[in-house]
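User: I'm writing a tutorial on reading structure tokens. Could you give me a worked example: one chain, its sequence, then its tokens, then a sentence or two explaining what the tokens reveal?
Assistant: Sure. Here is the example chain.
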Amino acid sequence: MAEEKKFPLLSNINSPADLRKLPESLLPQVCDELREFIIESLANNPGHFASSLGTVELTVALHYTMDTPDDKLVWDVGHQAYGHKILTGRRDRFDTNRKFKGLKPFPSPDESEYDAFIAGHASNSISAALGLAVSASLKGKDERTVAIIGDGAMSGGLAYEGLNNVSSSSNDLLIILNDNNMSIDKSVGGMSQLLISMHSSQLYNKIRHKAAMFFTKIGLLNKQRAASLTRFNNGLKAMLYHQQNIFEGMSVRYFGPIDGHDVIELVRMLNIVKNMKGPKLLHIHTVKGKGYKPAENDATSWHQPGLFDIETGERIISESGVPRFQDVFGETLVELAKSNPAVVGITPAMPTGCSMNKLMKEQPERFFDVGIAEGHAVTFSAGLGKGGAMPFCNIYSSFMQRGYDNLIHDAALQRVNMVLCLDRAGIVGEDGPTHHGAFDLAYLRPIPNITIASPYDECELRRMMYTAQQPNMGTFVIRYPRGRGSLTEWRCKLESIPVGTGRNLREGTDIALLTIGPIGKSIANVADEAAKEGISVAHYDMRFLKPIDEKILHEVANKFGHIITLEDGTVKGGLGSAVTEFMAQNGYTPRIHIMGIPDEFVEHGTTSELYHLCKMDKAAVWDVIQNIKKQGI
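And here are its predicted structure tokens:
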């Protein structure tokens, strides 16, 4: 009852069909209610805030004019789509968004028929939507397909690959370019500047439409001639207005830009373009964080702000005194840059997310944000390294998957001196399967000429960074998790670590526990509990997956009948696999118990919930130790 009073229209919209029953004049009120609902919801259940506020009017207009779910909406980047979730039957469950067993963090066909395609990584919407549109055409289905690309996703190379292919296929795809001049941080690059300055003439489009109708009527315009006429019209427009935009250069009809917060105008334009034949693009301008002043004023900080007070805009931050790994990275990078003039920083649109904004502030001339373009980030870094610079390229682990060939072909093959820092490695929590950094250890280990390291704690991270920028280290990968570490006093001395060496943290005689990365510290005291029951557990921090410390492995193989390996990565191909291969190749036959992320896509939840789900927390290690004891050590 309270919800109906506060949200009289929204509370009665349980599907887009309900929205379409309303008169157009009530749509601004629907937008106001939807925006207020998002603000109230996310103040208490944190999520991606500013992006979805910026797409409220677009979301309402799309579901009002399109026949969803038969018409397909493909969102690019999914954090724009909270309003879409709320309007498509998930309003009553929205308080479970991003929670364990609750609504998924990003659009997913597994959750709703209104979610046409998964939208966790940027820049895939045009390619995916084109595939859906062509598939519908081949099956003779009369349905529209819309790609909604925004938040800087047009800086990603895949978007241009899809765009290039759009005009060469028979399709009626509609691309909505949500231009807010932002990704998470402020958008950069030539495309960003082009979108800011681009304009379109309504008179031109009206004349063009009438000309098309006339030529069709007298039989001069058919499908074969349409592409040629489009190119001719684009050339004419370029001549008249002394410009040609990239979309029309690719034979995609361009409309806009228009105000993306005028829902009535959006409805009008969508009704005009939605039934037009051939590919077309509607360019809208929006404000990230629209309708909530603190978010409008600082969209970067309000991308994913956590808990906050709606009235004051004060963010509720729990201060533990322990820094985040990303902040230790950022501070250490600044230190290294001060002592090593060759050091430069590169990130694909995540300077705040990875804390490289610290270098950006201190030495902006040695910082490069390349936009949402992970492959380019790696190859650009390889070029910098080949030219004598010492690049630190920071990419989220799951996003690095898109730069895999670049790492092999452009860096490792040439033994380029560069450092690849993989933030958000392992289980990341509420962002779920699209963002878990589950695969990096496994997909990196087969590549020749690279070093793979993971720090036990913040001091080890600093030492690994210092080691990696020493001369002739080649391509050096350091991976570390999201969130806070364990040390309050982390500003240790910067000194080198011998590459390929691990550490014996605790002596033991019964079971050897081999870990890599901070997950080792999270379960370290399990050996104390084992000792109380008369089980002697030795603990080794391997530090390097490649080259792995063979001295330790020989020692362990000769001393222990049972080995437990634990890693915050997939059990297929990582530390456990490396240890098993070594034992087999050297004729050792210990019993190896491999623990880590299982061979499946892990859902979303808190990291503690997911570690427990994946049986890689302290309780799970203890269970394995107990089972070994029962079998006889």
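What the tokens reveal: The radius of gyration is 27 Å. The chain has a mean pLDDT of 91.
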